[in-house]
Design brief:
The chain is α/β, with parallel strands linked by helices and about 140 residues long. It has four helices and five strands. It is globular, with a radius of gyration of 14 Å. About 35% of the residues are buried.
């Protein structure tokens, strides 16, 4: 039997080197929207995410899992796994991994089509990729 997602808002995270993109769902868990970014660096990033979970009454956190195109786990995937485990230690809600292959490319393409350029586009990619990851998770839960 498939595990059911807890009812309530879901937070999506796209891990980057300097920033973590953040997206959040509506209360029904149907639509993901960008929320912002969090600067990387423990333990501040974990504390900031814990505060977002509290403030937005989040029931579940989804962390992008950057597998290779062949599905293998490289260093980035292992880093995401370690980060998800660190979140599990500090959050009162479940934390799951979501395959994020091509999410950044999809986010960049959408931003380019929307006319975002230069610095504005680079800043928006992280939160847009988090939105793509979270929406993929939400859609898979409804399938």
């Amino acid at each position: 039997m498939a595990e059911r997602r807890p009812r309530g808002r879901v937070l999506g995270l796209d891990l980057g080197e300097a920033r973590i993109g953040v997206a959040i769902s509506d209360d029904q868990g149907r639509l993901a929207v960008p929320l912002g970014t969090v600067r990387t660096g423990a333990p501040r990033d974990l504390a900031t995410i814990a505060e977002l979970v509290r403030v937005h009454d989040v029931a579940l956190v989804v962390v992008g899992h950057p597998l290779s195109l062949s599905g293998e786990r490289g260093e980035a995937a292992r880093k995401a796994e370690r980060f998800a485990e660190a979140l599990r230690q500090v959050l009162p809600v479940p934390v799951v991994l979501q395959d994020e292959r091509l999410s950044t490319a999809e986010a960049e393409r959408a931003l380019a089509e929307a006319g975002a350029r230069g610095v504005r586009r680079r800043r928006a990619v992280d939160r847009s990729a988090a939105t793509v990851i979270l929406q993929a998770y939400l859609d898979a839960q409804r399938a």
